[in-house]
Amino acid sequence: xxxxxxxxxxxxxxxxxxxxxxxxxxxxxxxxxxxxxxxxxxxxxxxxxxxxxxxxxxxxxxxxxxxxxxxxxxxxxxxxxxxxxxxxxxxxxxxxxxxxxxxxxxxxxxxxxxxxxxxxxxxxxxxxxxxxxxxxxxxxxxxxxxxxxxxxxxxxxxxxxxxxxxxxxxxxxxxxxxxxxxxxx
Amino acid sequence: xxxxxxxxxxxxxxxxxxxxxxxxxxxxxxxxxxxxxxxxxxxxxxxxxxxxxxxxxxxxxxxxxxxxxxxxxxxxxxxxxxxxxxxxxxxxxxxxxxxxxxxxxxxxxxxxxxxxxxxxxxxxxxxxxxxxxxxxxxxxxxxxxxxxxxxxxxxxxxxxxxxxxxxxxxxxxxxxxxxxxxxxxxxxxxxxxxxxxxxxxxxxxxxxxxxxxxxxxxxxxxxxxxxxxxxxxxxxxxxxxxxxxxxxxxxxxxxxxxxxxxxxxxxxxxxxxxxxxxxxxxxxxxxxxxxxxxxxxxxxxxxxxxxxxxxxxxxxxxxxxxxxxxxxxxxxxxxxxxxxxxxxxxxxxxxxxxxxxxxxxxxxxxxxxxxxxxxxxxxxxxxxxxxxxxxxxxxxxxxxxxxxxxxxxxxxxxxxxxxxxxxxxxxxxxxxxxxxxxxxxxxxxxxxxxxxxxxxxxxxxxxxxxxxxxxxxxxxxxxxxxxxxxxxxxxxxxxxxxxxxxxxxxxxxxxxxxxxxxxxxxxxxxxxxxxxxxxxxxxxxxxxxxxxxxxxxxxxxxxxxxxxxxxxxxxxxxxxxxxxxxxxx
Lengths: 185, 585
Hints:
The complex is a heterodimer of chains A (185) and B (585).
Chain A: E1 16-24, H1 29-40, E2 43-51, E3 57-65, H2 71-79, E4 84-90, E5 95-106, H3 111-121, E6 125-129, E7 133-140, H4 142-153, E8 157-162, E9 166-169, H5 173-177, E10 179-181
Antiparallel strand pairs in A: 1-3, 1-4, 2-3, 4-10, 5-7, 5-8, 5-9, 6-7
Chain B: E1 6-8, H1 9-19, E2 24-28, H2 34-40, E3 46-49, H3 53-67, E4 71-75, H4 79-83, H5 85-93, E5 98-104, H6 120-124, E6 130-133, H7 140-152, E7 158-164, H8 165-169, E8 171-173, H9 179-184, H10 197-209, E9 213-217, H11 219-223, H12 227-237, E10 241-243, H13 268-276, E11 279-283, H14 289-292, E12 303-308, E13 322-325, H15 328-344, H16 353-365, H17 381-390, E14 397-400, H18 404-412, E15 421-422, H19 433-443, E16 449-454, H20 455-461, H21 464-471, E17 476-481, H22 486-495, H23 511-517, E18 521-525, H24 528-540, E19 546-551
């Protein structure tokens, strides 16, 4: 049984949990997962999906908003999908998380050097340069991306896109304990 | 079967079905599934040609209900697949094992809005336990094996296999996967069947300590074929038993420990026993809203033991004190063993005799009742059911549609054997009865199958009586014709100030002529004196199907009733019993 993580690192306003869902890499599997969330009224905050090291499997990293539904029920319903092999609830404190953001920001004249300074501080990259805008990519923890986005907002964000987070357990024994082997009925 | 045998996908499909021991299937051919109907000509499988695909689905359900084996339906793509959605959803809600084969447009045409194309797996994804679009002929045997495995294990349910026309025509090298290969291909599917031993001991402890226990049986008891084990547990501890709509017959109605059906139209005794219990032992039941009434006030003082094979049912509605995930039969057998061991070890048993006499008191005070009809007035539907029941054997299979007649059937019939009751519980599908009865009779030709139907329900699917006639599957249908959508009319009378909106079906057809037009015997009954003779005549006819139309009282209501959203404490009794309500306190 997956334990419900009640210690929320984001405070009460953001009741988010990360589920790492290992699925068989078959057509329609993402539709099954997202359809289940829609049908049962669960909220997905973000979702990232890609094949794993074994091409037969994909890993879906779902950040769920559990303000309305107990996480336990979501996990159990997910387990019932035949293609779902394993679900790990990742405790943010015992997880390494990464997310990528691309952002086009206004940066003309004098402001350009200020923006590139931020790019250097955040170890971001300038991907494209326009006459009065820059397109930047940055990766890191969701918190870092939030901070960067906040700072860029002052200059005027033209467009931005985040990937949603991917996560794996930290390499200590504790984090592995909460992994639950797939079962269904 | 040599290893190098070359078959078409269609031949592989039919052979796979034969190897899964399919004896009877229900279906209707069309464009994309055509290739599969050719090898069927040489097959040992009996195919029953229906008149509407929905009928094939409900027949497969009826077949599965009475046998426990998966019902099989095969239809074509597009409109046939969409006509199958209702039976699939019905089977999903009631955990009925079913395998549905649908044709699909050729793989090259998928996604082009081709003729009779629809996204069958997309449409049926949320109403099946699993579904699969097969894209290579060589994958057909594995897809069929998996479908039967998934449909029949864990919490049973419907599985759909969608087969494009070209892969049915393509050649493949025949290969029948082993059990190991099937399991290996389903790494995420390992249903838990054996209960947790510590939880089982906890359950035994609670059962011995409870002073006011109730066994709350759901359809899972029947799915797990646990009726005998449950009876042993009930008798060992002399615990009162209630059987939900899906569990009727799982415990004999003529047993002194049986207090009938709980829920919205349950018996006052069953409802109240659950409300007052200090322990509810839920076996294969899911705390459905029609059973609990208002959840916040449901069985407020009861501890909960919840045995269910589906982990997601644990805590979905009511948090259990002792959750046990597992097969009902295996778990109950283990609980019985644990109880016996504890008794042998000298663990003291709480005295439940005061509770038993209290529950028996309710049963005496609040029997099922209705007002007999005045001379010259319309027949009472309950009377018809009582007479049908008294003329039937314990082996008679009773099938019902959905509505008032279904509730009266469940209440007034005596189910003394498991698998003698077939109905649509969770989805509440009107029109279920006629095709489901045909499916049940196809599975059990030696049994008498009576369907109780309403006039509204009957008009939804009665064309399948032609199927019954041409296939020689002789069922008996009793229409309780009150010329209304009776249950809706009852709600409009009670909760909408008698404003009757679109429930009048008095422009109904001549059901006797309808029956005769379909090759059945039609009998009309209008007065109480005619009832017994009509039933005797219907029971004596075994070479044709029989339709008996009982013209019954239009305004009869089903009692007891817990209004939607109300607490089970506020059950409405039959008006003649309301004055005694304080005995339920």
